Amino acid sequence: MILVVEDQPDLLSVLLSMIKAVGYEAVSAGSGEEGLLRCGELGASLRLLLVDLCLPGIDGCEMVARSRESHSAPVVFMSGGAPQPLLELALAKGDDFLSKPIALADLRRVLDRHLAN
Known about the structure:
The chain has five helices and five strands. It has helices spanning 9-21, 32-42, 60-67, 84-93, 104-115; strands at residues 2-5, 26-29, 48-52, 75-79, 96-99.
């Protein structure tokens, strides 16, 4: 299962539809705090996190750092304009990165890279 953490409802809906279109299943969280809860709920079924860098409350990097205690799933960060220090931290801490707006072909390539058996 893919967990998508994105605070913009319209974008979240589009991302979930795109993930389904390329053959994967996903659930969502609208904040870093909710993302932490979902990570715990998903447990071993969590196969990948797709996380926005700029979230209200705790940002994507902090959410991922805290969630690493409960999973070892790959992390793909996404952003459409994060501040440079946060972007550098994400590139160091994540397994991959997608720039918004995200093209379907790019999403498929990244998901297949980390999830294809």
